[in-house]
Amino acid sequence: MKPWFPPTVSSVAVAAAAEADNRVHRWPLTPRITRWLRTKGADARLAGFETDRAALGVDVAPDARGDLVMTVAGALAGAPDTTLQNPRVLQSWEGEAGRAEAWVLWVHGGGFCWGSARDGTGLRLAAGLGRPVVSVEYPLAPEARFPVAIEHCLAAYEAGVRERGPRVLLGGVSAGANLALGVLQRIRERRAAGDDLPLPLGVVGLTPFGDLAGEGDSYRVNEGRDAYLRWRGQQERFAWAYAGRADLLDPLVSPVHADWSGETLPPAIFTTGTRDLFLSDTARIHTAWRAAGGEADLVLAEGLWHSYLSDARLPESAALMARLLDWCEELLARKG
Length: 336
Fold this sequence. Notes:
By secondary structure, this protein is of the alpha/beta class. It has a single domain, classed as Rossmann fold (3-Layer(aba) Sandwich). It has helices at 11-19, 31-39, 42-56, 87-95, 120-129, 148-164, 175-192, 218-221, 231-243, 279-291, 315-334, and strands spanning 58-62, 68-72, 103-107, 133-136, 168-173, 202-206, 268-273, 296-301. The protein has an 8-stranded mixed β-sheet with strand order 1-2-4-3-5-6-7-8, with helices on both faces. β3 (103-107), α5 and β4 form a beta-alpha-beta unit. The chain is globular. The chain starts with 10 loop residues before the first helix and ends with a helix.
């Protein structure tokens, strides 16, 4: 029996949900098994990424740290490529004249255990913004447990600021949004101690996996309703694989517990859906951000699930990407 969806959800999204797999994982997340599972479908994922990369006109190359730098071919390299048909790219290039180029530090998702810097959302951000996106290739769990991934992402942020300048947007999706928020906490800690590491201009948090203890209401209400995720026997295993012996209530592990008071927060945008297993995480972080005096937008999609932006086929995904690009450009213009 097909699940019911409200009429506002597109037929494309309904069909995608019918094809999705949110079954419980019946295998343990040992390092050996996890390494083997990552190879399943890896060639197809890489081929899909390369097809999208070529279609979007984005060049990718690893930097000295092994992270992936995504740039629009010919853009922001001294003169705009007149063959580009994206007016946003050309406007961005003209607006950058005479000052340091804005760039994005992007952290991919995958439950801390999967995924790679060859991330489709990062690719679409690079194409849409016409700005460099540094997609972080952080060490995965369970081989690398907390806080290894956060420290790697923080080092990528520091290196990027040195090499590209301080005009950076910090963002990520799912587990990557968790890590991005961890990086922001570490930056704020260091600044409180007298470090001059700059804050990002803005934060993009797409459906953050922010509560590794699984205490939020949506972990119960949306169990089995999210098209891709379950908590019991699935995401809870990812949480323990990443956290290891760390306290699941540690704000760096679960940013729903972060204290955002103190220094002024950068503007942020958070996104989720009413069927997202992590809806509560997004709502709690957004509420805490606003309570601390921060500026934060919240995009809540009716009937949509975790990380629906990642499926570029969906009309809802295209609409959200357009919203994100507009938000980023407006912020960069304001912070220019």
